[in-house]
Each structure stands twice: as C-alpha cells, then as structure tokens.
C-alpha cells in the first residue's frame, strides 16, 4: 500500500468535487444493521443518520459531523459476501457502466438514482472484484479522509496486477506507477499525478472464500489499541499489527466477516 491520500486537505477535509475515477465513498451491506452500527460506532466514534433507502434500510456514518461511509441492510434472502465496497467517482455513471461492460466487467446493480443524492451502479471488474460507481448530485461523497475514523486508502487484492490494471486504466483514465521489485507485484493508480488507489497482485495468497476484492484502510490513532476493541466487540484479527514503511497496519474482520485494514500512517 502507499501512504498517499484521496482528495483531502491537510486537515482531512475532502474537496467539494472528486475527480472522475477517484475513490469518493465506501459502503457496507450487512444483515444486522443495528449491531454493525454499534460495532463501528464504538470502534471509530461514528454517529449515524438515515440515507437513501432504494436498496433497503441505509445509514450514513458521520465523524465530527461529516459523512465518511455508508452501511445498508441486505434483504434476509440475500447471501452475498459481506465486504466494504469503494465507490469511484464519475461524471456520467451510465456512460461509465457502458464502458465497464465493453471492457469485460459486469454491472450488477443499476445505474439507478439514490433519491436526490446521486446516481450509482455496483459493478465488478473482469477478475470479479466488486466496486461501485457514483455520480454525485446533492451527496458529493466522503467529507473526511485520512484522519482517525475515516478511510485513508483503497487497495485491490487480485491475482496479478497488470491485466486488471488495463481494465481500470481504460475505464477511468488512470495513470499507473509500478513498484520496481522482484518480490512484490504492486501498481499505484494516479489521477492528475496524484496517487488514489493501489493494485496488489498476491497470486495464490488470496483468501479462498473471497477471491479478488477491494480492501479499505481506515486511519486509527493506535492500531494495537484498536485491535483490542475489535476483538472485544466480536470482530477477528486476520493479520496482527506490524510496522511497515508506510506506518503501522493490521487487518481485521468485523462480526459479519467484512475485512478492513487499520492504519496509523507515518506523518
């Protein structure tokens, strides 16, 4: 991963408009909405208010009064993988959806309007990794980034980076920067010279029950302390906290199995 941020200033406040292709929101669909709110509310200090209800009960998480993420409730008969899903900004979600199909991806939901908030589609790349596309109206996206309790980075874990990079490059116009190393398969995606997301090829190290998937890193003040909270709240530690060149990081799963990373960035 990288320590780069999304479109936020030094105080963590997001800009008014996200450039097309930039991760602008992250959302989680679960079976137990109230229990999930309690988990993340305690872990990150989030408060909640209702959001658009087209796909069922849905709330937006707020940190210091600014929206940072969404959590929705799956219908009882839907047995989908529980996962945090990043949304990539678009000026025209219908056109983006057409391009996704032409490039070998799949559009599973939408495009459809989310009341007056904007227009969305839920898609998957050719490897099967799920992501969303968001065309903003009244809801621009996350109002904070890279501060404790807010998303800090998004990373695609896939079999190998180059083939799927072509898909994202064609659909969203990313530039890419590979990590020059014989030991790691990693590409950083850039927009306007700024890093916005990463593609990490991990081969057979992908979880058997998960396949290629996007992983969201949430900034925390103390990953070790956060791990204690995760376990105490019914979550699981998948990879203990460890130091990296970009900061201290751990990977966990919430009580319903959604994977996320906890990061204290190097400043």
Automatic annotation (TrEMBL):
Signal peptide interval: none
Protein name (database record): VOC family protein
Organism of this sequence: Streptomyces chromofuscus
Alphabetical list of CDD domains matching this protein: SgaA_N_like
PANTHER family: CONSERVED PROTEIN (PTHR33993:SF10), GLYOXALASE-RELATED (PTHR33993)
Annotated Pfam families: Glyoxalase_6
Domain VOC residues, every copy: 22-136, 150-265
């Amino acid at each position: 991963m990288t320590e780069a941020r999304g479109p936020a200033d030094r105080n963590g406040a997001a800009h008014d408009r996200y450039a097309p292709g930039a991760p602008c929101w992250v959302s989680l669909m679960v079976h137990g909405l109230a229990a999930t709110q309690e988990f993340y509310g305690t872990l990150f200090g989030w408060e909640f208010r209702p959001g658009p209800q087209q796909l069922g009960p849905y709330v937006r998480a707020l940190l210091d009064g600014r929206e940072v993420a969404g959590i929705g409730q799956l219908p009882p008969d839907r047995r989908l993988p529980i996962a945090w899903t990043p949304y990539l900004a678009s000026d025209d979600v219908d056109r983006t959806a057409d391009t996704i199909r032409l490039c070998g991806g799949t559009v599973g939901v939408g495009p459809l309007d989310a009341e007056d908030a904007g227009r969305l589609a839920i898609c998957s790349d050719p490897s099967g990794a799920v992501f969303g596309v968001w065309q903003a109206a009244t809801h621009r996206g996350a109002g904070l980034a890279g501060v404790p309790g807010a998303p800090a980075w998004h990373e695609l874990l896939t079999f190998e980076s180059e083939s799927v990079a072509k898909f994202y490059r064609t659909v969203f116009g990313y530039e890419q920067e590979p990590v020059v190393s014989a030991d790691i398969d990693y590409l950083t995606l850039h927009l306007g010279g700024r890093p916005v997301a990463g593609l990490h090829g991990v081969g057979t190290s992908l979880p058997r029950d998960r396949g290629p998937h996007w992983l969201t890193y949430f900034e925390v003040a103390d990953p070790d302390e956060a791990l204690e909270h995760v376990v105490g709240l019914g979550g699981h530690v998948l990879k203990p906290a460890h130091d990296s060149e970009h900061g201290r990081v751990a990977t966990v799963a919430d009580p319903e199995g959604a994977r996320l990373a906890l990061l204290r960035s190097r400043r």
